[in-house]
Here is the input.
Amino acid sequence: MRAMKSWTSATAVSVACGLYATPTWLSAGQESQNGARPVQIVYCSDVRCSTGEDGADDALSIQLESRYPQHAGAILRVVVVSEHDKRSALIDMTVDVQEDGAFGVQLPVHELPQGVYDISVMGEAGFVAEGRFKLLKLGQTPPVRRR
Here is the structure.
């Protein structure tokens, strides 16, 4: 059995898996006092996740992109739920997959409260892709976990 590596952050785990997309829209002055970024992609599988747009400092969003040739011309459902309440969709959208299989959607996460959220992309036969992100509102510090 192989020894498990100890990672210092979710970002390191995601980078090791090749699933992390570096946030590009934040300038150096837009990090919270403790250095945390407002939107942190924890992981994404079978879809490329990135945050915001260059220069859009007030638009907290997550961009999902991929190619799903097997779903060309179909409609996929994208749902965002809170880590604490998986029964209520906070964002629920349908997205057309183009004839060449191109898929893309921008998730407006700016009105969600601080927390951890799961993203699901679903087709007729079930899950197509999934992901998780953390949202930290600027000026707020993350809760301290007591052990």
